[in-house]
Prior knowledge:
Elements lengths: L1 E4 L1 H7 L4 H8 L3 H8 L5 E3 H11 L3 H4 E4 L10 H16 L15 E3 L12
Parallel strand pairs: 2-4
Antiparallel strand pairs: 1-3
Helix pairs in contact: 1-6, 2-3
Amino acid sequence: MTVKILLKELRTARNLSQNKLARLLDMSPQNVQRIEYGDAKAIPLKTLDKLCSVLRCQPGDILVWVDDDGENKDSSPNDQTILEQGTKDKNTSNSNLLPEQDSSSPLSIVPDLTDLDLPNSA
């Protein structure tokens, strides 16, 4: 089982370019691209929160769990709508110049611990 990132499908469904999304997230377009194509080693929860806020969605709309055959595991109707929208966009667009996301490497989601108020262990 792996986690598939549906950021590109959500972004295009919202008519946002990678550059526009990057500006809204206050991050570089390269980082948005890394997340979209599965090159990011991890997505901090703070970044996932920003993505959901900007795209007006839930984390489960961006990340889906798929089995080794590429089939959605426990897909909701919302997930299916996003996947169908992405397929329609792919068939009608010539702007897909980069390779498809490689879902062979698992994605780690790590919490952003920098804002925690932890007691000193001194």
